[in-house]
Specification:
Elements (H helix, E strand, L loop, with lengths): L8 E8 L2 E8 L5 E5 L10 H8 L4 E5 L18 H15 L4 E6 L1 H12 L4 E7 L7 H17 L1 H11 L9 H10 L3 H12 L7 H4 L6 E5 L8 H10 L4 E4 L5 H4 L2 H14 L1 H4 L7
Parallel strand pairs: 3-4, 3-5, 5-6, 6-7, 7-8
Antiparallel strand pairs: 1-2, 2-4
Helix pairs in contact: 2-3, 4-5, 4-7
Protein name: Alpha/beta fold hydrolase
GO molecular function, one term: hydrolase activity
Keywords: Hydrolase
C-alpha cells in the first residue's frame, strides 16, 4: 500500500422515521465503501481500516447501526433484525445520494453486509466479509450472547454498573482497542436486551441457497481458533459464493494489531471493484 496519508473525516447523521443514525465519512471521490461494526461495538472500530482505504483513494463511510454507538438506541426488540440493519445500509446510501458501494463488515457487520446485498443486489459493487456468523457458530453465539441478553433484561444493574465504571475513563488516555472495548461496555440495559433479542431470535444470515446466488466480487476473511466466528463458516461462505476469495488471518488479533497485510489485501480488492472509476493510478504515485 502507499504510505499513510491524512484524509478528510466528516461526521453526519440521517433519520429513519424518528430514529437517528450517525456515520463518519473518510476521503472523497466516487468509489464508495461502507464498513460496518461488530455486535454491540461502535463504528469507530473500523476507523483504522477506513483511514487506510481512504488513503488509497476510496470514499469510505462507517455507520453506527441502530442500537449501537452514537446512533439512537430504542428499547423495542421489534426494530432490530439483520434484514432491518441491511435496510439501514441502503437508507445510508440514499441519504448520501450513492447508487452503488462496496459493503463490508466484521461479525455482525459481515452478516449485515450479506443482508444488504439480499435487499438491493444491484446497489452492491462488492462484499468484504470478515468473521461471518453462520451455521458453525450458532451454538457458541447462543452460549455467549444468551446470558448477556438475560443479564440486560433481568439483572440490569450489572450493565449499569459496568457502564458507570468504564464510561468516565478518557478514551484518549488508553490504547485504541482498549478504548473500543470501553465503548462496547457503554450500554443501556433496555436497548442492549432489545438488540440481542432481535438478533438471537431473528434470521442470523441469509440461507445457503441465497448465499450461492451472490454474484458480486466477494472477499471473505476468516480467523483460526475463534469459536464464535469459526474459520469454517468463512471457508463455507467462500465456497458457496461463486468466485469468492478466501483469506485466512494469521490469528484473531492480526487485523487489530498488525493490520498491514490484511489492509493491503482489502484495499486491492476494493480498488478492483471500482477499477473503472480508479483506473490503475495509485494514490500518491
Amino acid at each position: 500500500m502507499s504510505g499513510r496519508q491524512l484524509v478528510s473525516e466528516r461526521i453526519g447523521q440521517f433519520f429513519i422515521g424518528e430514529d437517528r443514525l450517525e456515520y463518519t465519512e473518510y476521503g472523497g471521490g466516487e468509489a464508495w465503501v461502507v464498513l460496518l461494526h461488530g455486535q454491540l461495538m461502535p463504528r469507530r472500530m473500523q476507523q483504522p481500516l477506513a483511514r487506510a482505504l481512504a488513503a488509497e483513494g476510496l470514499h469510505v463511510v462507517t455507520l453506527d447501526l441502530l442500537g449501537h454507538g452514537r446512533s439512537d438506541r430504542p428499547a423495542d426488540p421489534l426494530v432490530y433484525s439483520m434484514s432491518a440493519f441491511g435496510e439501514q445500509v441502503m437508507a445510508l446510501l440514499d441519504h448520501l445520494g450513492v447508487d452503488e458501494a462496496v459493503i463490508g463488515g466484521t461479525s455482525l457487520g459481515a452478516n449485515v453486509s450479506l443482508e444488504a446485498f439480499m435487499h438491493a443486489p444491484d446497489r452492491v459493487r462488492g462484499l468484504i466479509v470478515e468473521m461471518p456468523v453462520l451455521d458453525n457458530a450458532l451454538e457458541a453465539g447462543l452460549v455467549v450472547f444468551g446470558p448477556m441478553m438475560l443479564c440486560a433484561r433481568y439483572l440490569p444493574f450489572t450493565v449499569r454498573a459496568l457502564r458507570a465504571v468504564t464510561r468516565p475513563i478518557p478514551r484518549g488516555l488508553v490504547p485504541f482497542w482498549a478504548g473500543i472495548a470501553l465503548d462496547t461496555f457503554d450500554q443501556q440495559p433496555a436497548s442492549m436486551a432489545a438488540v440481542l433479542h432481535g438478533i438471537v431470535f431473528g434470521r442470523i444470515a441469509p440461507p445457503s441457497r441465497a448465499r450461492r446466488a451472490i454474484d458480486v466480487p466477494t472477499l471473505v476473511v476468516g480467523h483460526p481458533k475463534d469459536p464464535i466466528h469459526p474459520a469454517a463458516d468463512a471457508a463455507m461462505l467462500a465456497e458457496e459464493v461463486p468466485g469468492a476469495r478466501f483469506v485466512q488471518a494469521q490469528s484473531i488479533l492480526e487485523w487489530r494489531v498488525r493490520p498491514e497485510r490484511l489492509d493491503a489485501i482489502t484495499a486491492e480488492f476494493a480498488r478492483e471493484c471500482w477499477h473503472d472509476r480508479l483506473g490503475h493510478r495509485r494514490v500518491g504515485s
